[in-house]
Amino acid sequence: MISATDIHKSYSIPGSSAPTEVLRGASIVCEKGEFVAIVGPSGAGKSTLLHIMASVDIADSGTVVLQTPNGPIKYSDLSSNALAKFRNSTIGMVFQYHHLLPEFTAVENVMMPALIAGVSKSDAKIKAMKLLERIGLSNRADHATQELSGGEQQRVAIARAVINKPLLLFADEPTGNLDTENANIILTLISELQREYNLTCVIATHSADLVGSAHRVVTMIDGQCR
Ligand SMILES: Nc1ncnc2c1ncn2[C@@H]1O[C@H](COP(=O)(O)OP(=O)(O)OP(=O)(O)O)[C@@H](O)[C@H]1O
Ligand SMILES: [Mg+2]
């Protein structure tokens, strides 16, 4: 379904002589509908790999190929505009720090990817409200995102990630900043959506509960998947 093969990525840090090699030939394959947890020590390269698989960052070398109903898509074959369009329609991404737009309300944040995809404002709002209801936040739809708790913000971020019915959902430590109760709500929500939408779900996490819900666990060490 999605395969990342022999991914290399280095970062140059201003003032330091040699670039730091973060990914050293990382490879991973995830099947359609599979829920994969990526674990490993801090600094192993989990977020970097996730960002490259989600096409929000670009590898120095290696290939990422996603099988879609219209055939395989190799990220490096797409222009940056085409990649942005592809990402909007195909990939949902939940970041560790939700990345909601603070100047917009909860419902506006959820609507955003649908509007970008060309859905009319009224239809986008209907879809977004359905999702907010689904995640138990319809009564918070018109609240500014700063007025929501951390757990509520993370639920909104998940709704935003799935509004375009993506094939893939990536989440980077989605429960990292939450208490146990909210972490459980997020875990349940992700598991339910994963099954309902038959999403391929790849999650970087330090949470034993999330790992326990995954179909498969991949361990990253020193920029490689084991
Ligand atoms: N933009 C960047 N510029 C320079 N170095 C970076 C950048 N992004 C990541 N790194 C470095 O790459 C390494 C891997 O980072 P990454 O965030 O992928 O690790 P991680 O496995 O997600 O860790 P954690 O569990 O702490 O989230 C780290 O040493 C980090 O400092
Ligand atoms: Mg990380």
Distance between the termini: 19 Å
> How does the helix and strand content classify structurally?
alpha/beta
Number of strands: 10
The averaged pLDDT comes out at 95
**What compounds are bound to the protein?**
adenosine-5'-triphosphate, magnesium ion
Strand order of the largest sheet: 6-7-8-3-9-10
Shape: globular
Q: Which range does the strand content fall in?
A: 25-35%
Question: What is the string of SSEs from the N terminus onward?
Answer: EEEHEEHEHHHEHEHEE
Radius of gyration: 17 Å
In CATH terms, what is the architecture? 3-Layer(aba) Sandwich
In total, the number of domains comes to: 1
CATH topology: Rossmann fold
Structure characteristics:
226 residues; Rossmann fold; six-stranded mixed sheet; four-stranded antiparallel sheet; binds magnesium ion; binds adenosine-5'-triphosphate; alpha/beta
Structure, described:
With 226 residues, this protein is of the alpha/beta class. It has one domain: Rossmann fold, CATH 3.40.50.300. Helices cover 35% and strands 27% of the residues. The chain has 7 helices and 10 strands. Strand 1 and strand 2 (20-30) form a beta hairpin. The longest helix is centred in the last third of the chain and has 17 residues, at 180-196. The protein is globular, with a radius of gyration of 17 Å. The model has no long low-confidence stretch (mean pLDDT 95). Residues 46-47, 172, 204 line the site of magnesium ion.
